[in-house]
Each structure stands twice: as C-alpha cells, then as structure tokens.
Prior knowledge:
mainly beta, Immunoglobulin-like
Amino acid sequence: MISSKNLGLTVLAVVLMAGMVIAATPQTIVIDGINDFLLDNLVDADGGDTQYTEIDIDSVFVTNDTNKIFFGVGHNEGSWTSVQMGIHISTGDPGGTSDSWGRAIAWTNAPHKPDYQAYVNLDNNWQELRNWNDGTTTWDVIYGGTGSLGWATSTGFRELALSLSDLGLAVGDTIYYEVIVTQDGSTKGPLDLMAGDADQLSTPTSTTWDVAQPVELTTMAMYIVQASGDAVPPTVESLGTDGLTGTSAGAIVRDYVTVRFSEPVDETTAETTTNYALSGTTASISSAVRNPSQPDRVRLNLDSTFDPQNNFVSVTVTGVEDLAGNPIVDNGTTNVGCFFFKGVLFRGLMGFHLAQHTYAPDPDTFSVEGSLSPLTFGMCDNALMTDVGGDTYETYVGFSVKGEGCGGTPSADTTLEWKFQHQCMEYEPLASNRVHVLSSANGAWDTLEYWWNDEDATDFTIRPIDVIFIVDVNSMSPGPDSVVAINGSELPLTFNVPSDNPMTDDGVYPDETADDGIYSIAVRFPTMTYKNVGYKFLYNGVYECQLQGDRGLWLNDAEFDTIGGTLGPIVMPLLYYDRCGTIGRDVEVIFRVATLNVGPTDTVAVNGEPNNQAPPVIGWEVPSINPMHDDGVYPDETADDGIYATSIVFPDSTNIYREYKYIINSTYECLTQGNRIFYIDDSYDAVGNPQVLDLAYFNSCWVDVSDETPAIPFALKQNYPNPFNPVTTISFTVPERGRAVLSIFNVKGELVRTLVDRTVEAGEVSVSWDGTDRFGRQLSSGVYFYNLKVGELTMSRKMVLLR
C-alpha cells in the first residue's frame, strides 16, 4: 500500500526492486552538503553493512522538483584516498554494460542497464556525467571537470542535482538507479551498493579489494518523476559554444552561442531575439531557436563569426519565461551568462618517436586526445594533426570556457588533461596525462609545444654508436653447440627469441680468444637511438637473471662513435652471465675511514650487510669481525695518521649493492641517518687488484650545507624503504616557503626523473617514487642519487632500487 499526504502536490513512489515501497514528496534541495531532504524521501537506510565506515553508504534520499532530480547520500571517506562514488541511472534507453571509468563493474545480465553514469573522485572532486552512445558503444562525456556537476562533497552528506532535461525526463517517467562506492582502478569493483547488497564486495566481516573479472550487477531501485508546482523563475546557468578543431587559427570560428537555463523555458519567449542582449562580439543575433530535445537550451544564431579573443562574450536575458509562466528576474546576475572562447595551438615534435616507430599505412597520423570538449579520449575521433614539416605536427582547438562573475568582473578557468596519439592506436606512454589550465588571464591563445612522450633531443644519439659487449659464460659450461646472444630495448637489439643478435667465441674481432667461454659482439646503434639502453644476455634461448632487472647502458655520443671512427666504440667491461645483481668473481674491497680521539685501547671497525655466502665476510655483529688498523701495514698506507683501513674479499655471487657503517668499540656512526652504500665492481677489480673506496669521515654520512639552524631545519631524509621495490618515499624539510627541486640521477650523473619542481610551504614534504624515469619506463636495479635544491641550499643522498 502506498501512503500519501495531502500536501497539494502529486505524490508518487520510490520502489526498490526487492519489493520495498516508500512514499516520496516533491522537493527542491539546496546543494550544500547539509541534509534538508524530507523523511518521506528516504529511500534506504543502508549504513552498517560494510567492514569499514570509510566505504559505507549510509542513508540515501531521492526527490525531484520541476527542473531537477536530487540525490542525497550519507557517506564519509575520512582520511582514505582513491574512494569514488557513482550513481548509475537507467531511463529506458538501451544502456551500457560497462563502467564508464573502466572499473570492474558490469550490467551484462541486468534487466535495466544504465544509460547515464555520474561519478565523483573524492580525492580531487573531479565530477563527470556520461551517457551511453549505442552507435559508438562508448560512454560520452556530457559534463566533466572539477566540480562540474555541482556535487557537494566536502561534508559527510553528498548531494547531487541532475537536470531532468539532461536526462530526457518528464513527469511520470520511470528511472532505475544504483548508488555505488568504489575505488580507482580497473580491478576495483563495487565495495558498497544501495540496492544490490548481495553483490557488494564489502560485508561486515570481510572485504575483497580487487577482482580479476567485472562484478555483474542486476538490482536497481525505481523512481517515478513526480509532478510539482513551480513558482521559481528560470536563471541563466551558462553561455557557451561548442568547441571545435581545425588546421589553422582561422578555422577556429563560431557563428552561434548557446544559452543554458536552469530549467525548460517557454518556446515563444525563448525564441524572441529582443529578449537577448549580446556583448563582447561585433556579431548580432539573427535568430533564437529553442532545442526541441533539450528545452532548457536556446541557440542564438549570429549574423557573423567570432574567433578566440581576449574578451568575454556575454548575454543578458530579459522576458524569457519558464513553462509555468515565471519570467526571468532582471537583476544583472542570475540573468547574465558569459564565456571565454580560448584557442590552443597543439604542436607535437615527433622526430625521435618516428625514428623508432614506423607503422603502415603511410603517412603517419597523429591526434590530440583530451578531457574537455571538443576533445575526447576516443581514438582519432577529432583533432587530427597536420604535418607542417620537420616531423612537426600541429592542430588548433577552440574551447568554450564557462565564465564566473559574469555580472561584474568575469573570470574563466578550467583544467584540461591531454595526450598525443599515434596512428589511432598508441597513446604516449607518459605515466599520467599532461595537465594544462585554460585561463582567461592568459589571453586568447595558448601554444602547447611538446616532444612526443616529453622526449628531448639530448635523450637521443646524434651519430651512430658501436658498442662491444663481452660476457663470460663459463658458469654454464658452454659447448660447441651453445648459443649465446644479447637482447635489448633499442634497435638493432630486440626481445625476439631466438635472438637476432648471436655472440661469438671464435677469436675473430671483437672476440679476443677462441673457445675460452667468453663471448663477444659488436652492435651498432643508429642515429636517433634512445641513449638509455636496457639489455640482457641469453644462453640457448633462455634469459639470464630472470628475477632481476635489466642491465643498463648509456650511449655516450659525446665521447664515442664507431669502430674505426675518430672517437672509437664503447667497449663494455667483462660481464658474467646470470650475474646482474651479484658479482661474478671474488673482489677485494679496501675500506678507509678518518676519525679523531681514538685511544690505544679503542677498536675501529667496519660492519655491514652480511653477504650471501657461508661463512660471511662481513656482518652487524659486535664486536666486529673486521677491525681496522692505522699501523702502516697493508692496506693502511701511513701509521698513526688517523686514517684506519682494512681489506675484505667478497666472494663470487655476493650481491653487488652493499650497505655498511663504521663503528668504534660498540658505537655506530650516524645513528640518526641511513647506512652507507657502495657498489662492488667486478668488471675491473678482483683479488690483487682491489676496489678502493673513497676516504670516509667517521660520523659524517651526509652533510647539511645550511650555515644557520632555523626552527625548521633544511634536511633531506633517507628514503624508506631502502633498498626498495617497487615504491619508496622521500621526505625533506625546508625552513621557509620557496621553490624546491627534487631530482633523481643515475650513477653516471644523468637526470632520470624530477619528482618535485614547485613552490613548497615551510615544513615537511613527502613524495613517492616508483622506480620509473620521466617517460614512465621501469629503470633497472642499481644505485641512484636524489638531490634536493632549495634556493642556494642543496643536499644529496643515495638509494638502491632492487628489481
């Protein structure tokens, strides 16, 4: 039985598929995050059915007035990140079976499939409304951007209003909907559901965070759009025009603008041109046409065109009425709309990418894909670029940026995410989209010029480079039929198996001695090769070091060229097969430390990470098994000079990255700092030809270069964890507000990644690094340095990446 109340309004019902029937009352909601829904409009008290309150949907409300449908959802993610909330709505169209943001949620067998999906990312308030395009079988963005839906998210009660016109709804229409709390990622399913409790992944006792296959949903709640009296006059929600793309600046022009009202408007008054006063353009209104399928929108056709310009286009509306006969209020604020028509020239520098990637058919096709209309992230659907010569591609895009403060001093800002695309099949492999703010403050035109994947000319060779690789495979007992080869990331190296690059042990150059188990090959890398080369050796078609990262090579074209060339080839040191993270022979290492105030009975020693051999040659035991001496006897050079030395022979198969510290008696140095790190070099050093470490100073593992001691010190902390795989955190503190640059370098001193380059506030800053370079490529195992620069202050530390 449906109850009703004598409120002078038509009261229809909200119905759950499970059979629960709840009365509802038409109501206008103020979207402010404060629950002012009537109790009649409570759909479901869903709280308490998940393991964690941060993903729990509490009470859900729904209602509508003449113009909008309102959803209210109790939910508070607390300090959790990556939490997202969505509402899936079926209005009776065919609908989609997938999730519009690509999560593991599906509606394949559902009786009602959503044809609209509204989502908010609670981390950054990015909001989108998408509808299902049955023709292209994709989700098209209707609105997208930070706060674009006006969803109130700053409190524990979420509120959303959607235009009935946007959803194509009228009084008496039936919709079906589901409220979802989920997380960001393609393996994330519905953690909590309002209607489909049986399908949610969190229960009071357990939670499934990731799934291999989409979770199929079948249940929705039902709502019937209610009739409601209307005494509220229409307002101007926005003025704008469709964005467009072209091959030149002159192609980015429009001859119309569109007024969007807060509700459907009367056709007669809406199509009276004298009800509109246009400014900011020399064009005049030739006609006004109400959109028959979206009666809250009126297109104002112009007698001439306008292009991106430094001023706002504005409209002041008078005399237009809504369907109930309420005239718009002429107050200079709610009857005024404006927009800034922004032009952007996208210029792509594609030469280095094209040198490495060729596809049929010819010529190559590039496009710009993005988050704001007219751009989308669909494959080559618009914004195709033109080859203007020199492997440079361009396209022009006009964006309509909604204005704020249109009745006074307007401004317009919105955020665009975008990337280049090649041959309608390959996005740039950047770790994240590029981000650009379209702002009226920057004028009518922006030029965005980038190398593909943010590559730079200095990352690629300017001449051919020959590299001679040498590997000792005696550990594999090679025979006459053994095949030793090399594979890698840059042509002519490939990852084909069998390998395209077999090595030889025949005594013919570059191999020195036949049949000694040491194989060689000369590889020529052509001009415009990416300088950072990853590679591995293979033995009889099987890769070495399968649980370790690739070996690395830097093509230094400033100092090398080709065999027989002026500079000569790069001759790699002798390497040992299957020893990517360990040494291939015994290596002697000499440790030296300078210290003061050591008495005749004191013991100076070196301790460190135990090696992976028995018995260990170093460890963390106290007393130390490696005392050091200042007696002038090898490896100490001069007696009684305050410099202590010792020699340790690390056996074959010891891990190449070693942590250590010096110790006096039972007291370690640098107690508040990380361990020292060094790399055992078995390429040149061995027993009898020791590796001599730089002279160290006791209790000086790193130095703060600041002359003063501010209340908040300038400090760069040791990353944690260290060594790390796959992610580590770097923290630093700065005494005052200023620009900070935190950069990662490899052992050759080459820039790998810039993690921070921005103004930071005084205090502590933390940032994570996932072991990738600035192109999003995984780096190989090794020692890396991170450097912090703030003004004239600078500090560096070491860290170890282990794959």
